Amino acid sequence: MNKVLQQLEIKPSNAHVFEVSPKADVVSKVQETFLRCPGDSKDLYLYYFLKMYRERAIVFVNAISMLRRLVKLLDVLGIPAVGLHASLQQRQRLKFIDRFKRGEKPVLVATDVASRGLDVEGVKYVLHFQVPRSTDAYIHRCGRTARCGGTGLSVLMVNAQEHISFRKLMDSLGRSEKDMQVFALQPTIVHQLHSHLRIALQIDKLQKEIDKSRAKNTWVRRMGAEVDIEVDDMVDEEANDENKAKGRAIKLLRRQLDLLLAKDMGTLGGKGGFRTSAQAIGAKEAEVKLAERAIMQVTQKPKEKFRKSHGLAGGVRSIGVEGKRK
Questions:
Q1: What are the backbone angles phi and psi of residue 253, rounded to the nearest 5°?
Q2: Are 11 and 2 in contact (CB under 8 A)?
Q3: Contacting residues for 5 by C-beta, under 8 A, at least 6 apart
Q4: Which Gene3D superfamilies does the record cross-reference, listed alphabetically (predicted)?
Q5: Which one is predicted more confidently, 9 or 31?
Q6: Cα–Cα distance between 44 and 107 in angstroms, integer?
C-alpha cells in the first residue's frame, strides 16, 4: 500500500483505506472440521471417509497429477469417481459433471477450477485433500455444499508439511485452530480398512510399471523406425513376459482385495453380516494363498525382493493406522 501511495504522491498520514466489499466467509450451514493426517495416512483417511459416508462428495486437490492418482486409486478400491480439471476439453468436462449429477459417479475429484460456478444439488460433503493455496479458494470450495438451503460438511485434511499453510489459512479467516472442530475417526474401522488400501496400492504400483514399460517400448520402436534402426525382438519379448507376470499378479491381488471387501461389507453398512470365527479363519487362509501366488507370478525378480518391494514380506499381515506391521 505504501508503494502505491508513493506512486500517487500521497502522504501515508493523509491516506485512509476503506474496505468496500464485506469480508467473505463460509456460510453458517456448512459444518467446518479438520483432520490431522500423520505420516502418509491421507489416502487411508480419505478412503475411510468415502467408505463410511456414501452420499455425494467433492474431493478438492491442488494439482492435476494428484487428481489422476486419486481417481485411479479410488477405482481400484471400488469407489466410482470422476476427475474434473482445467486441462479437460469443455465437452469432457460437461460429460463428467453430468455423470456426477446423475449419481453414476458419486465422488468428484476436482482442482479449484470446479470450486466456482459448479452448482450440483445434493453435494453433502466437501473434502480438502490438500490445504487450499488461498482463503478465497477455501471459501469457494466449501460453497459447493449446503446449496439451496441445505446443510453440508467440510473436512480439511492436514498433514505435517501443511501445518504452516493451515495456520495461515486460519489467521486469514480470523480464527484459531481451537475454533475448528476435529473430525472424529473410528480407529477400529480405520485399522480394518488399512489392509484394503495396502493391496490397492500394490495393484496401482504394478499397473504403473506395466504402463511405463509399454510406453517405453512404443517410444523405442518409434525412434528406431525414424532412424531406420531395427529393434531386437528379444527386448520386446522380455518386457512382455514381465508385464504378463505382473498382470497375473494384479489379478490375484484383485481377488485378494475382493475377498477383503466382501468380508468387511457387514461392518461397513453394506449387505451381509458378521461371520463366524471358522469363516474368518477360512477367508484368512485364502488371502494368504492368493498373496503367495501373486508373489510367484513375477518370475523376473527374486521372490524375496519382490515380496519386500510390494509389502508382502511374511505373507498377509494386518497393518496399524500408522503403517506399522503387527
A1: -65, -35
A2: no
A3: 11, 12, 15
A4: P-loop containing nucleotide triphosphate hydrolases
A5: 31
A6: 16
Residue 54: φ, ψ to 5° = -100, 10
Classified as helix, coil or strand, 296 is: helix
Q: What is the pLDDT of residue 139?
A: 93
267 vs 72, higher pLDDT: 72
Q: Identify the pLDDT of residue 78.
A: 93
- The C-alpha angle 293, 72, 47, rounded to 5 degrees, equals 85
CATH of domain 26-184: 3.40.50.300
- 8, pLDDT greater than 80: no
pLDDT > 80? residue 290: no
Amino acid code (one letter) for 251: K
Q: Are strands 181-182 and 152-158 parallel, antiparallel or unpaired?
A: unpaired
Q: Cell digits for 169?
A: 489459512
Instruction: Taking each helix axis as running N to C, give the angle between helix 233-264 and helix 277-297, from 0 to 180 degrees, rounded to the nearest 10.
Output: 170
Instruction: Name, in order, each residue with C-beta under 8 angstroms of 303's C-beta and a sequence gap of 6 or more.
Output: 295, 296
Residue 3: what pLDDT? 66
Which position has the grid cell 470446479? Answer: 114
pLDDT (0 to 100) of residue 273: 34
How much is the average pLDDT of 243-250? 92
Torsion of CA 45, 46, 52, 56, to 10 degrees: 160
Q: What is the pLDDT of residue 77?
A: 95
Alpha-carbon span 133 to 3, nearest angstrom: 25
- pTM over the 0.85 mark: no
CA 130, CA 111: separation in Å to the nearest integer?
10
39: left (phi over 0), alpha (psi -120 to 50) or beta: left
Are residues 306 and 297 in contact, defined by beta-carbon separation less than 8 angstroms?
Answer: no
Angle between helices 42-52 and 64-76 (to 10 degrees): 60
What is the percent of the chain where pLDDT is above 70?
68
